[in-house]
Design goal:
Strand order of the largest sheet: 3-4-2-5-1-6-7-8
Distance between the termini: 44 Å
Number of strands: 8
Helix content: 25-40%
Radius of gyration: 17 Å
Number of helices: 9
Order of helices and strands: EHEHHEEHHEHEHEEHH
Largest sheet: 8 strands, mixed
């Protein structure tokens, strides 16, 4: 029964902005006063680590394969929000990548997910196109699966391929988020549309914590659709001068 606790944010293809979408989703929930943990299974790209301040000694790969404690792998982001957001990024060296994709690592991920649920209101998972054991575990363990794609023919084709892959592993696509667009384009099944971020903070702080009148509300709509929650958030109004730019 909603509201749901966990969601896997899955990229239909590489380069569609999955990590940024997962991060902005988690930050939006934290801005609404919720405690959120963002787990990473994108070992090939490892983009989430760019948003974690300081050194990451125990990363997601070691958490899933070396019996490390979740508390050792979490990096809390200091954000001006009512809730708390902690991330568990992948920063695995090449020697660890093979182990991080095994069935044993998938079991380690599931254990980490269960522990995260016990201490947070919501858990978001950054998931690449489903090809590894931890990615399969993420989409089959999470309460909801949100697929991120782009409003292009390439995005449409990638969405169809991922849909078939999800069906192969017994997972459902609950929400479709079209990224970097003003309309869904060829993606008729879109549940939410998120425009391009015009400006990203130099310190990689999630844009949603300092909301603008266009991007942040769109992310909030996508977040509400993914978790089936009502968010009590306010956003600045878009003025006449903004419309003229």
């Amino acid at each position: 029964m909603p509201p749901y606790e966990t969601a896997a944010v899955v990229g239909a293809a590489g380069g569609v902005g999955t990590t940024r979408t997962a991060l902005e989703t988690a930050a939006t929930l934290a801005r609404d006063g919720r405690d959120v943990i963002l787990l990473d299974v994108a070992f090939e790209t490892q983009g989430l680590v760019d948003h974690a301040p300081g050194a990451v000694d125990t990363d997601a790969g070691r958490l899933y394969t070396d019996d490390a404690r979740l508390s050792e792998a979490l990096v809390e982001l200091s954000l001006p929000v009512d809730g708390e957001l902690a991330v568990c990024p992948a920063r695995a060296p090449f020697s660890l990548l093979a182990r991080a994709s095994t069935a044993s690592a998938a079991q380690g991920f599931e254990a980490a997910m269960n522990e995260a649920v016990s201490v947070a209101d919501h858990v978001v998972v950054d998931v690449p196109p489903v090809a590894s054991n931890p990615a399969v575990a993420a989409v089959t363990t999470a309460d909801r699966v949100g697929v991120v794609t782009t409003a292009t023919e390439r995005g449409h084709d990638a969405l169809q391929r991922l849909q078939a892959r999800l069906a192969d592993v017994g997972a459902d696509r609950d929400t479709t988020i079209v990224n970097r667009a003003v309309d869904p384009g060829p993606i008729e099944s879109a549940d939410a549309t998120v425009p391009e971020i015009e400006q990203v903070a130099s310190d990689s702080t999630p844009t949603a914590v300092d909301p603008d009148p266009v991007f942040a509300p769109a992310v909030a709509d996508a977040t509400a659709a993914l978790f089936d929650v009502e968010l009590d958030l306010e956003f600045p109004e878009q003025g006449l001068l903004s419309d003229l730019r």
